[in-house]
Amino acid sequence: MGKKFLFILRRSPQQGARVRETLDMLLTVAAFDQPVMLLFLDDGVYQIKRGQSPESVGLPAVAPTFEALALYDVEAVLVERESLAERGLTESDLVIPAEAIARAEIAALVADQDVVVTG
Amino acid sequence: MERFFSSMKYAIQINSAPVQSQSVHSAQQFIKAALAEGHEIIRVFFYHDGIYNGFAVDAAWPALARQHGLDLVLCVSAAERRGMAAGASAELAEGFRFGGLAQWVDAALKADRTLVFGG
Amino acid sequence: MAALHLISRSPADSRALEQCLARAGEGDAVLLIEDGVYAAAEGSGSGEILRAATGRVMVYVLMPDLEARGLDIGSPCLRAAGANNSPPSPAPALHPVDYRGFVNLTASHRPVVSWF
Question: Between 3.30.470.10, 3.40.630.10, 3.40.190.10, 3.40.1260.10, what CATH number should domain A5-118 receive?
Answer without folding.
Answer: 3.40.1260.10
